[in-house]
């Protein structure tokens, strides 16, 4: 079977000379690459050219970088792209604003789309809190004592992008939308749990979560019996490239972990859940899957795909309890669970704002 062409998003710095960009696109065309979109981003001292390129089958990112360098350019960032990246920035910002006004719970996901960020999370607004001065982390001010922290590994943020994101937050505030907050839910036995995005400081809590899980639970999730993993793997779990990680937290413990990872199909994302044994059957996985479905729907995904062992029925049962239509079929020796993102209620009651902050900061 012939390999499928890959689509990439490149940010390129070129000398300010006539024809520089034309020479780069010509060289890409010689490598059977199709430039699908082009935009210019102002930066101090010049501009960045952003190209969305469909590469010829078998062409690697290193080949694209070599083509740029051959014409005297420097690649400031490269990441996998999909058809949604073909929307121009102003249109994407307007769509994100409409989504955030219509569904305040999707505000962080709307910001993530505008910034093409790996993650956007909320945190208490503290003047003493600083972000890493590397351009890959940003701190935006919402209101009501809330800050928004964004991270993007594939390319540094530009001031234009950050200004656009701050304007989106200001617009949502002017429209009466509440500041983004962690979501509080009640388990079936009345215990309060906060659902929030995972962040880099959660490595120890996630390692402890894995240590408390039985080997059976770990095997059903990872299809292997490994209990401990290197710290760099935990960081990747919490900050997957172009993916989303959410955690369920009770007091100072992370009791469940969920992930969304984009697939090669633009409207589909892979979903996975890990729920501590003592919290299984209490609605935590149901609430977490419902929240992930809402996030996926806000990002434009219509389908979540989960992979289970052939006799494992936990994910289909969880989808049913979350009110999500789903279907199952055997594929490659595993059970493929297809879950629709439509109509994804979050089970439980939203906590008061003060309680949400208390649990989120615990």
UniProtKB/TrEMBL annotation:
The keyword ATP-binding does not apply. Keywords: Acyltransferase, Transferase. CDD domains: NAT_SF. Gene3D superfamilies: 3.40.630.30. InterPro entries: ACT-like_dom_sf, ACT_dom, Acyl_CoA_acyltransferase, Bact_Acetyltransf, GNAT_dom. PROSITE patterns: ACT, GNAT. Residues 9-88 form the ACT domain. The keyword 4Fe-4S does not apply. Residues 193-352 form the N-acetyltransferase domain. One of its GO terms (molecular function) is acyltransferase activity, transferring groups other than amino-acyl groups. This is GNAT family N-acetyltransferase. The lineage of its organism: Bacteria, Bacillati, Actinomycetota, Actinomycetes, Pseudonocardiales.
């Amino acid at each position: 079977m012939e390999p499928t062409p890959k689509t990439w998003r490149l940010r390129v710095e070129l000398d300010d000379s006539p024809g520089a960009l034309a020479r780069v696109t010509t060289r890409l065309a010689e490598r059977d690459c199709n430039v699908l979109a082009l935009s210019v981003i102002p930066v101090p001292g010049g501009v960045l050219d952003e190209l969305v390129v469909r590469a010829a089958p078998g062409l690697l990112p290193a080949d694209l970088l070599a083509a740029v360098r051959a014409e005297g350019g420097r690649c400031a960032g490269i990441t996998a792209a999909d058809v949604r990246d073909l929307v121009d920035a102003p249109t994407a910002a307007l769509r994100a604003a409409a989504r955030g006004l219509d569904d305040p719970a999707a505000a962080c996901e709307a910001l993530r789309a505008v910034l093409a960020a790996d993650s956007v999370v909320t945190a208490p607004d503290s003047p003493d809190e600083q972000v890493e001065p590397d351009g890959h982390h940003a701190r935006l001010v919402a209101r009501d004592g809330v800050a928004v922290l964004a991270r993007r590994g594939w390319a540094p943020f530009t001031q234009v992008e950050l200004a656009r994101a701050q304007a989106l937050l200001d617009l949502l505030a002017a429209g009466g939308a509440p500041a983004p907050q962690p979501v509080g839910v009640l388990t079936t036995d009345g215990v309060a749990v906060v659902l929030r995005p995972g962040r880099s400081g959660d490595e120890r809590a996630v390692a402890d979560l894995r240590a408390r899980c039985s080997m059976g639970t770990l095997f059903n999730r990872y299809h292997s019996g490994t209990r401990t993993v290197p710290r760099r793997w935990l960081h990747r779990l919490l900050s997957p490239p172009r993916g989303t990680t959410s955690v369920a937290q009770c007091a100072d413990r992370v009791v469940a972990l969920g992930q969304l990872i984009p697939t090669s199909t633009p409207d589909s994302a892979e979903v996975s859940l890990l729920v501590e044994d003592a919290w299984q059957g209490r609605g935590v996985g149901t609430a977490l899957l419902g929240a992930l479905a809402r996030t996926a729907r806000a990002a434009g995904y219509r389908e979540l795909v989960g992979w289970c062992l052939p006799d494992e029925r936990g994910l289909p049962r969880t989808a049913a309890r979350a009110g999500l239509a789903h279907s199952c079929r055997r594929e490659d020796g595993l059970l493929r669970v297809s879950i629709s993102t439509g109509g994804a209620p979050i089970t439980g009651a939203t906590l008061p704002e003060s309680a949400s902050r208390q649990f989120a900061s615990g």
